[in-house]
Design brief:
466 residues; alpha/beta; Metallo-beta-lactamase, Chain A; Rossmann fold; 2 domains; 15 helices; 33% helix
């Protein structure tokens, strides 16, 4: 009998980590970090795994975002030596994501050790290093969509397009011997059908057990047309009052969608005089990987497909990359007319915090929130309407106009999730909901049950039979 244990993303949005055990061995689906504010998640990210890393035979990744991949270097550090299976695009993005994570780990450890030295306390080590990243990168094995691969003697996997970001996949795992198999499906993060770049999530019809994401299980997104109208109005207001537009953005997925839409605006004569800066080394590298895999883009915009083969800056001539720190600092001297897209997407770190420090207190500035903001993050605080925030040890007044544009989400909304689940009619599977805050999980479970589907909310440490 095969069993599955939920070691993360259970009753919360991040920390994806699901362990499958069979007669043939153990395979881990995703190995992500816990994101959000507070010391609890930092402690969980550095804590021992609830299993022996050396006993894991293989890892299968749904996609490259750190809440699905960010603890892979720690897994290797703790003794995991097996293959890491992922799509070809995820294989490429993983190097960018993990090297950046190692850099941040090192910087955080240096900062903490300076504090500890002043307090007479012993130093700490980073959770993992660039050497651990380099090791786990040698363990990557790239797969094509729809390619079937044996990851254990009794487990075969097939990756299908999940539509979330470049390379994102849902996993079909067939467990057992021919003629007596059970099928486990891990949805991964499912994409929004309004994505300008990614294809829609592929439907799957057969399964016995489905692990299903629930990030937006309690609501649908604003219609894309309304979101684009609002974005256009924000840019015009910024042009009229001379304010900068600061957009905290995830380096992989959201940044590239924004480049597309800003290019579309420019080609439709709507962008006016704004210069657009991608102020994220990781976002720049990810954008270049997107260029290399442009064959995976959907075919909704023929003009875009023709132009983007020449690069993003052919699509959006005002686009500028600020790769180096001194270039980023120079943006602080721009008082008007700049659209600055910078990481991190939840304002928990990265260059966007510097831009917020220099712009939040200005009434003419605009901050545009375009992605999910976990509880406890600076981004969530801005969305919730706080009057002041603390940045680099200083209190900063929030006088800028804060806008939330839900239609740009890379996640499926509630109705899209229900429609995806409703395609599993042949086998009537059991659904276990993961990747959601409690209200989203309960709302989606209720909707699925109303459709006659078996839906339960996964809990941390829960073991189920497949």
């Amino acid at each position: 009998m095969a069993t599955l244990i939920f070691n993360g993303a259970a009753e919360q949005v991040t920390g994806s980590n699901h362990l499958l055990s069979t007669h043939g061995g153990k395979v881990l689906f995703d190995c992500g970090i816990f994101q959000g504010g507070g010391d609890d998640n930092e402690a969980r990210n550095a804590a021992p795994f609830p299993f022996d890393a050396k006993a894991i035979d293989a890892v299968v990744l749904t996609h490259a975002h750190l809440d699905h991949s960010g603890r892979l270097p720690l897994l290797a550090k703790r003794g995991f030596t097996g293959p890491v299976y992922a799509t070809r695009a995820t294989h490429d993005l993983l190097e960018v994501m993990l090297k950046d994570a190692a850099f941040l780990e090192q910087k955080d450890a240096e900062w903490e050790n300076r504090r500890r030295q002043r307090a007479g306390q012993p130093p700490v080590e980073p959770a993992f290093t660039i050497e651990d990243v380099e090791q786990v990168l040698t363990q990557r094995q790239a797969l094509d969509y729809h390619q079937t691969e044996s990851v254990l003697p009794d487990v075969k996997i097939t990756l299908v397009n999940a539509g979330h970001i470049l390379g994102a996949a849902s996993v079909i795992a067939d467990i057992g011997k021919p003629g007596s198999t059970r099928r486990l499906v891990i949805s991964g993060d499912l994409g929004n059908h309004c994505s300008p770049l990614m294809k829609d999530p592929e439907p799957i019809q057969d399964a016995d057990v489905v692990l299903m994401e629930s990030t937006y299980g309690d609501r649908d997104h604003k219609p894309l047309a309304d979101t684009l109208d609002e974005f256009d109005q924000i840019l015009h207001a910024a042009s009229d009052n001379g304010g900068n537009v600061i957009i905290p953005s995830f380096a992989v997925g959201r940044t590239q969608d924004l480049i597309y839409w800003l290019g579309r605006f420019w080609r439709d004569g709507k962008l006016n005089r704004h210069q657009v800066f991608i102020d994220s080394p990781m976002g720049i590298q990810a954008s270049e990987i997107y260029e290399q895999h442009h064959a995976l883009f959907n075919h909704d915009d023929a003009e875009f497909l023709k132009v983007v083969a020449q690069g993003w800056q052919a699509w959006l001539p005002q686009l500028r990359y600020t790769r180096h720190t001194d270039q980023s600092m120079m943006l602080n001297n721009i008082d008007s007319g700049a659209i600055i897209i910078a990481g991190s997407g939840m304002c928990t770190g990265g260059r966007v915090r510097h831009h917020l420090k220099h712009n939040l207190w200005k009434q003419k500035a605009h901050v545009v929130i375009v992605g999910y903001q976990a509880r406890g993050t600076l981004g969530r605080m801005l969305v919730d309407g706080v009057d002041t925030v603390k940045l680099y040890g200083q209190r900063v007044a929030v006088r800028a106009q804060i806008h939330t544009l839900g239609g740009f989400s890379a996640h499926a909304g509630q109705q899209q999730l229900v429609d995806w689940a409703d395609r599993f009619r042949k086998a009537s599977p059991r659904f276990y909901l993961v990747h959601g805050e409690p209200e989203a999980l309960w709302a989606l479970a209720e909707r699925l049950q109303q459709k006659g589907l078996q839906a339960a909310i996964a809990t941390e440490g829960q073991r189920i039979d497949i």
